[in-house]
Design brief:
- With 74 residues, the chain is mainly alpha-helical.
- The protein has a domain of 44 residues.
- It is 54% helix and 0% strand.
- The protein is built from two helices and no strands.
- Helix 1 packs antiparallel against helix 2.
- It starts with a helix and ends in a 28-residue tail after the last helix.
Length: 74
Amino acid sequence: MSEIDADLDRAAAAYWLSVASKSTPEKNAALARAANLLRDARAESRIPDSARQPTLNDLEAPPLDVPHRRRLTP
């Protein structure tokens, strides 16, 4: 996701924290929502915007030298 989405999640979390500080019956639900939004915002900020993931061809590994297989039965 983008940084904007992460910022929106942080703002929503701040809102739910303010709700939790004002009312006691909904405090647990508001704190849970805020915690979820903050966790999502942190996760989104770690994920790059590029959807392309590196493949094995992108990794610069030397080719494997595989010996020819021999039959086990004569």
